[in-house]
Amino acid sequence: MPPHARIDAGHPLLARRSIRRFLDRPLPDGLLEHLLDVARRAPSGANLQPGEFIRVVGATRARLGAALRDAHRDGRQESEDYRYFPEPMPHALRRRQVAAAQALYGALGIAREDRAARARHFERNFDFFDAPVALLVTIDARLGAGGYMDLGMLLHALMLAASAAGLGSCAIGALAHYPRLIRAQLGLPESRHLVCGLALGYADPDAPDNACRTTRVPVGEFFTTLGGEE
Question: Is the pTM of this model over 0.90?
């Protein structure tokens, strides 16, 4: 590939990673709204623009986090609004899942058998990793898989916009485990399906978990060419 055609290593797409430790530094006024305004240019089939973002702050955020931690510690389970993981999990996907967990807990120095430490770290999901911005992402329950595809592009656009602005982010799928609890806490209708959370803020450059990198499969595993010269 010619040098001028390569994407620079500093591009937000290549620099982006999941951030789980943030500085105690608020975003400037209007920055979040600006990032959302930029992200809404993401592709959207028929321009439906599905998905909504809810920022939770103050006492509401604290109560929500406490309720989620209690539910997790009590072993309470809810039916999720949508299925993310296949059942049963194929071995190839399970290996990727395990490798990602090993990379994260390895960076933190948490041993596999230290279940208490792993549980404490997992519960940080419910505090949005103490990020200055805590967002919940919902979608109209009437939308099908295509709406989730569009919402995923919007989420990625927001995370790339944040990266370009010098911010870090982390999508939080663990929140999707408790859709009824979250709707009850925030007074949301059943028609709003809970997709995930999003933590946003300035990354702590010294945090070991922020140094974690997960691998991606080689292009040859998911790309092929069919057809040829007739």
Answer: yes
